[in-house]
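This week, work through this protein record:
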Amino acid sequence: MLIILNLALPVVAGLVYFAMAYEIKKSNRGRTLIMGELTIKGTFYAYVALGLWLLSRPLQNIIGPHPSPLAVNCVRQFLMIALFAPSLLVAIFNWTSEDKKVPKIVQAAVFIVAAFMGLIFVLINIAAVDGSKIIAQNSFITLYDAQWFMEGPRRLELVLIHLFVQGISPVGFCLFAAGIVRHKRHNYPPDSIYNMMTKKWYFLEVSLIIFACSMVVAGFAALVTGYGTYLWVIYFAGAIVAGFFDMKGIKLPPRIEKARA
């Protein structure tokens, strides 16, 4: 059962976001006109990055003992922190702006901050992870995962920096994006011809909050329990739920003709 959980849940979660990336990629001219080309590209790259982050977790487990799980985890987390979160934030900046243009300096600043956070995360990971443990096995396969502080005392300062980094990206970026969407939704002209945009933004806002909150809950649990083995299930499940809300918003047309009396 544990082997199925470790291998199946990440695959399901990853496929959800690849499906969303596909939906964005096949955008027609109307959707591009409404959302803007930068929004389409940014959202596509964000969903691909998150899909890879989710889908590649089994590789982290099956590749073997330390230091292999650590190496894969560092690549995965950098992908999420430095590519997914800033791509999505820039895309939403662009989508909600009046002229569908985000200054290059703003885009660069977002990605620089995210890359810096990703680098710090990797360095903290390398400093804290000093071994691996078997999390599931049978006669065919053995799954390993990176383990913090196996050979030394628990260093609270590393845990706090680790959580602070993720509090900025992806959690902070996602909550900031949700706030932008919420503001746009509440200030959208009620007489616009695109009468379903507020609902589309509602589903996007909910999905961002769900994903961010799942990361916060997992982070709090990590602080309390000292990084339990299956804390990742919290934000993977959160990612799946968030993905379905987001997909509902993507599928929703921007306009529905009202019946005439």
Remarks:
- The beta strands are 129-137, 142-148.
